[in-house]
Amino acid sequence: MSEQVLDFIRESCDVQYFPDYKKEFPVFLEALKEAEGVLGSGLKFDAALLDQVPKLKIICNTSVGYDNLDIPLLKERGIMATNTPDVLNDTVADTIVALMLSAARRITELDQFVKTGGWSEHGFSQQQFGVDVHHKTLGIIGMGGIGSTLAKRAYFGFDMNIIYHNRSRNEEAETTYNATYCTMDELLEQSDFVCVMTPLTPQTEKMIGKRAFEKMKKTAIFVNAARGKVVDEAALIEALQSNEILAAGLDVFEQEPTDRNNPLLQMPNVVTLPHIGSATAETRTKMAQLGAENVVAGVTGGKLVTSIY
Ligand SMILES: NC(=O)c1ccc[n+]([C@@H]2O[C@H](COP(=O)([O-])OP(=O)(O)OC[C@H]3O[C@@H](n4cnc5c(N)ncnc54)[C@H](O)[C@@H]3O)[C@@H](O)[C@H]2O)c1
Ligand SMILES: O=C(O)[C@H](O)CO
């Protein structure tokens, strides 16, 4: 949270700032007991915690995903909740393109090859060729804000054929990026790149599992920048180990931070990132500012900018 954003909130509210609330949870909890609003990322409130914070009117998530929040419980308690949609679409879509390119062109693997002397010792061989991204078929599961921003880059920047699966048709993506709606099975069977971009919900949890990987092409590259739990990670590991798919680009994992012994971290054909989809200085500032506007509105009785319900 930048001083600028904190100052914006301070114009209307008393602020107590915890750069890492988990490290000083008892002090944070004491502050929370008096709080009318809370702003942060990954905050979790169960019934027992809510019982201790009677003045709380609003929880502002500084992320677009809000699977950390128990929405039915918050509604029942009359507590408002907000997230940060749209301001991060471009940055997250850029990250996904980076994962696609890195996995297809073996960028991180070859970076290590050069830096550890492999190139000078052994030279470059055709076994190290990658595969093209341009003119391939990109399947997007979850054609929302980020999915359609990715479609734009893939269609205009890489001449890709866009197919998608979503809860409902996205007419803008169909007309602007020539995206074709298809069933999940059709998408899995036809895509060269499968990118999942849905929220984590009871319906999407482990949505991509053994059966889905079996449906994919053997040459498919799987990219997940949504939430780790949308994928059955054991099935992903198995699919990579048995060459059911070619490679993967992952920004998110079932457990974060990932366990050092997670087999995905040992695979040269898997590109990993530490959940940094939106992590640029510019975008994180926009997300914090949007959260700040919401928290001020919630505490002072104003109109919320991006209410979840
Ligand atoms: N890696 C990161 O840093 C990062 C950054 C931003 C968002 N995310 C994740 O990405 C998710 C999507 O973000 P967004 O801003 O595009 O959200 P969004 O709400 O704009 O889009 C999500 C899309 O998924 C679709 N969807 C939901 N359930 C579905 C289902 N069962 N089957 C098919 N489609 C379904 C929705 O209809 C919607 O079109 C977030 O909820 C968050 O979990 C991750
Ligand atoms: O949901 C989100 O916004 C990301 O995961 C965190 O930036």
UniProtKB/TrEMBL annotation:
D-isomer specific 2-hydroxyacid dehydrogenase NAD-binding domain boundaries: 97-277
Keyword match Oxidoreductase: yes
What InterPro entries does UniProt report for this protein, alphabetically? D-isomer_2-hydroxyacid_DH, D-isomer_2_OHA_DH_cat_dom, D-isomer_DH_CS, D-isomer_DH_CS1, D-isomer_DH_NAD-bd, NAD(P)-bd_dom_sf
Q: Which Gene3D superfamilies match?
A: NAD(P)-binding Rossmann-like Domain
SUPFAM superfamilies assigned to the protein according to its UniProt record, in alphabetical order: Formate/glycerate dehydrogenase catalytic domain-like, NAD(P)-binding Rossmann-fold domains
Give the catalysed reaction(s), semicolon-separated. (R)-glycerate + NAD(+) = 3-hydroxypyruvate + NADH + H(+); glycolate + NADP(+) = glyoxylate + NADPH + H(+); (R)-glycerate + NADP(+) = 3-hydroxypyruvate + NADPH + H(+)
The main enzyme category here is oxidoreductase
Give the keywords, sorted.
Oxidoreductase
Residue ranges of domain D-isomer specific 2-hydroxyacid dehydrogenase catalytic in the record:
3-305
What's one GO MF term for it?
A: NAD binding
Q: Which GO terms describe its cellular component?
A: cytosol
What's the Enzyme Commission number for this chain?
1.1.1.79, 1.1.1.81
Q: Which domain of life is it from?
A: Bacteria
Q: Which family does it belong to?
A: Belongs to the D-isomer specific 2-hydroxyacid dehydrogenase family. GhrB subfamily.
Q: Report what the protein is called.
A: Glyoxylate/hydroxypyruvate reductase B
Q: Which organism is it from?
A: Domibacillus aminovorans
